[in-house]
Amino acid sequence: MTIKKIRAITHLLACMVVCNSIQAQDNKKVKIEVSNDLDYIDPTIGNVGQLLQPTRPTVQQPNQMMRMYPVRADHIDDQIASFPLLIVSHRLGMAFSMKPALSLPKTADDWKKRMTFDHDLEITRPWYYSTFLIDNGITVEFAPGKKTGIYRFAFPANAHTKCLLLEHYNTGSSSWDLISDNEIAATETYHGDIKVYMYGRFNAKKCKIDKVDETKASVSFGGSANDTIELKYAVSFISAEQAKRNYEDELNTTTFEQLADDAQLAWQKVVNQVKVEGGTTAQKRSFYTALYRCYERMVDITEDGKYYSGYDKKIHATNRPFYVDDWTWDTYLAHHPLRAILNPSMEEDMLNSYVNMYEQSGWMPTFPVLFGDHACMNGFHSSVMFLDDVRKGLKNFDVEKAYEGMLKNATQATMLPWRNGPKTELEDVYYSKGFFPALKPGETEPVALVNSFEKRQAVAVTLGASYDDWAVSEMAAMLGKEKDHSKFAARASNYKTLWNKQQKIFLPKDAQGNWINIDPKFDGGKGGRDYYDENNGWTYMWQVQHDISGLMALMGGKNDFENRLDQLFREPLGRSKSEMWYKFPDATGLVGQYSMGNEPSFHIPYLYNFTSSPWKTQKRIRFLLSTWFKDNIFGIPGDEDGGGMSAFVVFSSLGFYPVTPGIPAYTIGSPLFTKSTIDLQNGKQFTVIANNSSVVNKYIQSAKLNGQTINTPWFTHQQLVDGGTLELEMGPKPNKRWGTGEKAGF
């Protein structure tokens, strides 16, 4: 597809309404013909956050380290601060700032000037970006490679001066140097001690660079230069020489159009792996955009068989890709399970990267980024990730070494949120009494390592650790380590120590085992972090994915479990929305006390499949998708977290979901599309057919798996990868008998 066609299609898609038409200038509706599944992708969906972070419109190749989006607050902002040459990490920094200008800078304030643009003249595709800067009449374009990129700046024809203002985003030693009449090199120090190197070439000769200081410079091209200035460049985390080799590997004879075409082909390959039929245009736009977001990270940082590791600050040789940039608290629930279906060999390379990180740093990471394990959130959910993938047959890495890291985390690491390192006296309470201790309201924190903002999160930590310990137990059993299996199987039930029978909710205890009386809806400070994390006790009531039958027993059985689920979606806030969100800004996408905008809630609507009313899962999922995942700039109900929430959308739109990572099975929801086909890496296909599915026909009337009638709402991972067909008959009213077979439940 040509750049011209991209511009035309993107402009039309940006104006599209749900009825698959736009309002033209003459007020007549013009039919939009979507020619390719790629055309449904709109990176601007969700670019305005509900309360916190927006979802960024990343331009990159799938799972590659060269990422770009213009620096601005969100989609509502009509000014761009700068164009980065590299997004180093998802929401964790950039390198090498650049902006065009029509005059040489006079003061340092020139680098601070923001550039006004027109949203309707901006084009954002996964493989191509363009915008028009209104104040100076400059058009900016970008195309991504793997370790490379190309910027084009089309200056006005009468421009006497064509200039690029260069700057760095990070403190520390840095430089900009013109090494010939059209070659430029730069270094920047990221996160205090990581050197990022850049090598590039301009299409104009006799460039002139003026340095203001260590961080700022300008490059001018003069009136005789081409109207369009092009910068082709490469980056490296290894060396300046490697940056130049990366350039030569990818860009030596590559044009802007070729690089954009190559990137588009890379996206075509991954997006066309899942083909859907039926559904509305809006549903397809939300679905394929969510699928695109699932490829933002992790990213491959290997360069010519080498990579820089932030885990031991060394360069390593490798014959496999080395991946970084993963936030496991967000991604173990759906993102990694989705990748285990779509690209299990890539998932194995990512698991191998985790093992390498453990060997290099001494700890199994939980939020592995470029500079090391970014201590964030709570739990060691990489343990669940490993168990889930191994049980699905992904074993092309050192499984014993992975278990060694899991075991060390479970026995020697601190469980404190947002902290790395050895255990404290608080972990000893968990090991001996089965719960992480909390403080009473107003009590002074005696443990210096506790983060002053993130606090202890005592209930959330206990529940998460119970799940992680279950994963260690199950992995130990698979490896024949019976002593470990028994020990951690017992710890997997630790969640029960905080169940309050009177209030029927998980509540905190102090170190002596005394209940701390709180309001589980609202107490615990900002985000409830004294006891929970980003959500209140109503969300954490359901954080026992590994033992749903045990949780059901605590609640009094199947009927009480179902009634409690009903109450969750109907329970009032008990206060104004402003009061609620001032304390819980992450708890967005609310339906009653259910928070669609945060990861711990993903599995909850599917829990109806363990009751006598699976039809309620179908009802809830369709309502949540249609309410909170619109195909517009507000179409993500919370922090999307680089694929974490989007994977939920992909699974739920296809009609099934992994309720319990670690158990290789999927529970059935309500497919949006009449037919969805997944091309598997083993050459087979898995197809979901939902006959008569529509906005109204959302309820399952009957089901067959490979021609055999089923009355239980799940199937196994093995059945999926073996290839086959799940066929559902859909209707407008629930069949309250379907899915209630005696063997219902995992």
Rounded to an integer, what's the Rg over CA atoms?
26 Å
Which residue ranges are poorly predicted, with pLDDT under 50 across at least 5 consecutive positions? 4-34
Mean pLDDT: 94
Largest sheet: 8 strands, antiparallel
Distance between the termini: 46 Å
Going across the biggest sheet, name each strand in turn.
Answer: 9-10-11-12-19-16-15-14
β-sheet strand percentage: 15-25%
Helix content: 25-40%
Report the principal-axis shape.
globular
- Structure summary, number of beta strands: 38
Q: From the helix content, strand content and strand pairing, which structural class follows?
A: alpha+beta
**Count of runs of 4 or more consecutive helical residues:** 19
